[in-house]
Structure formats: C-alpha cells, structure tokens
Amino acid sequence: MNSQALGYFIFGLTLVVLFAVIIVYNYSKKRHKKVEEPKYKMLEDDD
Q1: I need a surface site. Which of 2, 10, 16, 38 has the fewest CB within 10 A?
Q2: DSSP structure class, residue 44
Q3: Is residue 9 part of a domain?
Q4: Backbone angles phi and psi of 8, in degrees to 5
C-alpha cells in the first residue's frame, strides 16, 4: 500500500468515524428531552 492509498484510507476512515459520532450524539437519550420539548410546546394552547 503506497502513501497515497494510505492517505485516502485514513481520510475515509476519519469521515466514517465523524459521521458515527454525529449520529450517536444526535440520537442520545440525554438530548431527547431538549429536542422533543419545543415540539410539544408548540402544540400547547396559549389560552
């Protein structure tokens, strides 16, 4: 494996890991309430 192929492999692997981290962060249980709360607040009556 030459250095160019290794560079592409490391770059691709970095992108995959970054994508996985973003997905795990957005769907974590800690953020669930913060993400869902505005939806329910919008549906409440203001009366």
Answers
A1: 2
A2: S
A3: no
A4: -65, -40
pLDDT over 90, % of the chain: 49
Taken as a whole, the chain contains a residue count of: 47
pTM: 0.64
Provide the domain limits for residue 39: 17-47
Domain count, the chain: 1
Q: Would 7 be classed as within a structural domain?
A: no
Q: How would you classify residue 30: left for phi > 0, otherwise alpha for psi between -120 and 50, otherwise beta?
A: alpha
DSSP at 28: -
19 within 8 A of 27, measured Cβ to Cβ:
no
